[in-house]
Every structure is written in structure tokens, then in C-alpha cells.
């Protein structure tokens, strides 16, 4: 095992690697207070996700899908409820540990790609590896290999604005995979793409996750995307069903 994996494994799991589901949430709640009024968005979300499982999250606009994904991605915290990721009780983690887990244990793909505009495709893929301390030569080799495996070997030096939407999303997916995290979170990853690019991104996302044994939670409005998941979770009235 190389130093990259050892670092990532420690950050993801703590020691030793736990048995049981990769992710468990129970009765998770989150509200937002705006101008003195509190809106309860998540009113009791519960689910378990096994290692390597693909789960689609669906629900009406405004039902709280992104709110839930942000909590699962450790970008936001729940007000109450259980949240265990890879054997770690998330609410008990300090900020440093949480930040490292977010970077090394979870890969993110967003509808709007969120690439760094002034950086090349290769440099964008390297970002999580820079934060994780992967040495320069190694991270460039990993990024190149990932981009080549996604058919972007000829685009390593391109900036995001020089790439199509589908190409940008492949770069974002390569970035999400670069530290080989056990969980990929995707918030409407095909929402800004045409049908052909959507299919290609889903092929890549699911194929790469399967190869690596990573679980995927994908928020989507697209029935064709949801149909490719092992399981569909619906958010209705702030609760998972
Ligand atoms: N930071 C915030 N402050 C206040 N309200 C928020 C905040 N984040 C989300 N909300 C509210 O929470 C509700 C759920 O938002 P969320 O973005 O999770 O919905 P969604 O299911 O992802 O919708 P969409 O399908 O349109 O993306 C909305 O009413 C939204 O206005
Ligand atoms: Mg959303």
C-alpha cells in the first residue's frame, strides 16, 4: 500500500477499519432560521448505505435533498440525530478531523462542476491530493491516469472554459475519485448536461465507483438516473421514505 492510500485510509476510518454499513443516519433533523422564523427542512431522515451501494435520492424541488447531501458530505451539520460515517460518529469529530474526512473520505460532484477556472484540468484533479499531502509527481501521475481513463488525455492542459459541460463534469468526477474515497456524493450531476453527456457521466460515475468499491449517493430529478441505482430513497415532507 502506497503512502497515499495509507494517509487516506487513516483519515477515512480511524483505526481499525470498521465493519457494518459505510453510512448510517437516524432521525436527522435540520432547520434554518431566517429573519427570526425557523423552517424545519429535514424532520427525521434515516438511512443506511452499504459499501459499494448506489443510492438515488429523489424528491420535489425544495424538499431538502441538497440540505441532506451537504450534511452527508460534512459541509453542514445536522441539528440533531445520529450520523455515523465509516465507523466515526460525525457530530463528535473536531473540525480538523472533520475537514480531513471531508477531503479524503468523500468525493463530491455538483451540477455546476465547481472547477477552479484559472487552473488546468490536471491541476483541478490534483486539488484534493494537494490538501492530502500527496507528493507532486505522484499526484500528477494519478490525475493524468484518471483523466486518460475518462477519455480526456488530450485535455490535460485545458482550462474549464475551454471544455464542454460533459468534459468539465468528467474532470470534476476525476477530482472526486482522486483519493479513492469510499463515498461519492453527486448532487444532480447530470442536471446541466444533454442526454448523451448525462449517460456518459453516469457510465463513468457508476463504472469507476464499482471498480473501486465506492458507494454513491446521487440526487437526481432524472428517472433514467434513478433507475440505475440499487435503491431509491424519496424525501417527502422532510422525511426519508
Ligand atoms: N442556508 C439556508 N438558509 C435558509 N434556508 C435554506 C438554506 N439552505 C436551504 N434552505 C431551504 O431549505 C429548503 C430545502 O432546500 P434544498 O436546497 O435542500 O432543496 P432541494 O431538494 O435540493 O431542491 P432542488 O431540487 O430545487 O435542488 C428550501 O426551502 C431552501 O430554501
Ligand atoms: Mg438541490
Automatic annotation (TrEMBL):
<comment type="similarity">
    <text>Belongs to the ABC transporter superfamily.</text>
</comment>
<protein>
    <submittedName>
        <fullName>Putative ABC transport system ATP-binding protein</fullName>
    </submittedName>
</protein>
<keyword id="KW-0067">ATP-binding</keyword>
<keyword id="KW-0813">Transport</keyword>
<dbReference type="InterPro" id="IPR003593">
    <property type="entry name" value="AAA+_ATPase"/>
</dbReference>
<keyword id="KW-0547">Nucleotide-binding</keyword>
<dbReference type="Pfam" id="PF00005">
    <property type="entry name" value="ABC_tran"/>
</dbReference>
<dbReference type="InterPro" id="IPR003439">
    <property type="entry name" value="ABC_transporter-like_ATP-bd"/>
</dbReference>
<dbReference type="GO" id="GO:0098796">
    <property type="term" value="C:membrane protein complex"/>
</dbReference>
<feature type="domain" description="ABC transporter">
    <location>
        <begin position="23"/>
        <end position="241"/>
    </location>
</feature>
<dbReference type="GO" id="GO:0005524">
    <property type="term" value="F:ATP binding"/>
</dbReference>
<dbReference type="InterPro" id="IPR027417">
    <property type="entry name" value="P-loop_NTPase"/>
</dbReference>
<dbReference type="GO" id="GO:0016887">
    <property type="term" value="F:ATP hydrolysis activity"/>
</dbReference>
<dbReference type="InterPro" id="IPR017911">
    <property type="entry name" value="MacB-like_ATP-bd"/>
</dbReference>
<dbReference type="InterPro" id="IPR017871">
    <property type="entry name" value="ABC_transporter-like_CS"/>
</dbReference>
<feature type="region of interest" description="Disordered">
    <location>
        <begin position="1"/>
        <end position="20"/>
    </location>
</feature>
<dbReference type="GO" id="GO:0022857">
    <property type="term" value="F:transmembrane transporter activity"/>
</dbReference>
Amino acid at each position: 500500500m502506497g503512502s497515499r492510500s495509507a494517509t487516506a485510509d487513516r483519515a477515512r476510518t480511524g483505526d481499525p477499519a470498521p465493519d457494518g454499513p459505510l453510512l448510517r443516519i437516524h432521525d436527522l433533523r435540520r432547520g434554518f432560521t431566517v429573519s427570526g422564523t425557523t423552517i424545519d427542512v429535514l424532520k427525521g431522515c434515516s438511512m443506511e448505505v452499504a459499501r459499494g451501494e448506489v443510492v438515488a435520492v429523489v424528491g420535489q424541488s425544495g424538499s431538502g435533498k441538497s440540505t441532506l447531501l451537504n450534511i452527508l458530505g460534512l459541509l453542514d451539520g445536522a441539528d440533531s440525530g445520529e450520523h455515523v460515517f465509516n465507523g466515526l460518529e460525525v457530530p463528535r469529530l473536531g473540525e480538523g478531523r472533520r475537514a480531513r474526512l471531508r477531503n479524503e473520505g468523500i468525493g463530491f460532484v455538483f451540477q455546476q462542476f465547481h472547477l477552479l477556472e484559472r487552473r488546468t484540468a490536471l491541476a483541478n484533479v490534483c486539488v484534493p491530493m494537494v490538501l492530502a499531502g500527496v507528493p507532486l509527481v505522484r499526484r500528477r501521475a494519478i490525475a493524468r491516469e484518471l483523466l486518460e481513463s475518462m477519455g480526456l488525455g488530450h485535455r490535460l492542459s485545458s482550462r474549464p472554459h475551454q471544455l464542454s459541460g460533459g468534459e468539465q463534469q468528467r474532470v470534476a468526477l476525476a477530482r472526486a475519485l482522486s483519493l479513492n474515497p469510499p463515498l461519492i456524493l453527486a448532487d444532480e450531476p447530470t442536471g446541466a448536461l444533454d442526454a448523451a453527456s448525462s449517460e456518459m457521466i453516469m457510465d463513468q460515475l457508476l463504472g469507476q465507483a464499482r471498480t473501486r468499491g465506492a458507494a454513491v449517493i446521487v440526487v437526481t430529478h432524472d428517472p433514467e438516473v434513478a433507475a440505475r441505482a440499487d435503491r431509491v430513497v424519496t424525501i417527502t415532507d422532510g422525511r426519508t421514505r
